[in-house]
Amino acid sequence: MTGTENSASLLIAESVAKSFPLPAGGEQTVLEEVTLNIAQGEVVALLGRSGSGKSTLLRILAGLIQPTSGRVLMNGAPLEGPNPGVAMVFQSFALLPWLTVQENAELGLFARGVSKEISEREATIALSMVGLEGFEGAYPKELSGGMRQRVGFARAFVMKPDVLMMDEPFSALDVLTAENLRGEISDLWERGAFPAKSILIVTHNIEEAILLADRVVVLGSNPGCIRGEVKVDMPRPRDKKSPRFVALVDFIYTVMTNPRAPVGELPQAGKSRFPMLPHARYGGISGLVEIVHDRGGREDLPMLAETLRLEIDDLLPAVDASALLGFAEVSQGDVIMTAAGIEFATAGVHRSHEIFKEQLLKYVPFVSTVLQALAAKKDGRIGKGFLLDILDEHFSASEAERQFETLVDWGRYAQLFEYDADEERLYVVEDEQAG
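Predicted structure:
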């Protein structure tokens, strides 16, 4: 089991899975066999990329949605319905605009039937903890984004939960505000003044996870599953410039970008004929390849992300796409150019299209399916709906749309086909040129 299973265990997920129906029939598995333990007195970070099911898992643990299989235990008892032992802080603040700061902070206690006198007292204490003294009578529209999120924290604090859950609570804030609020939350925990026994935070920010957590649980994608965990063996408060901090960031980047990942991230044999395409446009791919080439053909991913001022979800799709197409390899937290990548980075415009075409045909099997379908049509045209019907067998409706968009972007750059957005049809490039 992930985590320390002992008498101090607060929250446990046992073999939790979650699936949703697909439009064309069948199911999409979002989470698969997730087993997780949250012990008293620890901060656990769930770290994963888009599509790893982080938020879905959090909502299952909170009792907001039911798992397809498996179960959740809270203080040793099976969870049925909303979890009374947790409180949540959301990314979107989720304040009621017609209530004052004080009233928003009291909301959870009011729902539990706590008296007005006690609710007011507890809310005042919580607002003081997050630095909002004097703003009790203000309305959300009068507050900055950072102040609104502080109200969100205060609303959770008054519940004095066993486990405080945070779903990317700093991602909607500007960098400086996020850094300040993150530091204040960390300080409350380190001083023993935090009004919860444990914290579970969902994030895609590696540095944030290492800064706050005792354990970082890394999730794989499609379906979401636990690949493993990293124990953050650093004293608090943590120095982001220390060699150990940098080493942990580098290690987790390696874990999250290594194509030879542990079993759990790898797709099951026969599950899909078509691997999921990373959502990166050709411009992002070529830009990344050129930058790494200009830096000597090898670049440290954390350093590259910092230089480009990109979050992991912004950088990794281009990295994944470059690796998928054979332009780069990822090893030990570094992205390394291949021979094909070097040729692509240094080629002229015409040759770069040809190289991209060669790699696309070599590594993306769905492209061959599209070309075969185009060749079978007398007019060399096929509708978007036809391809979506194929993709719907392997992906959700929204993901099928994104896969189609990526396919069109890559295929057009490779000059394999064009797309008429008005008619929603792909057509053969040669036929269009001839006509």
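Summary: The chain has a mean pLDDT of 84.
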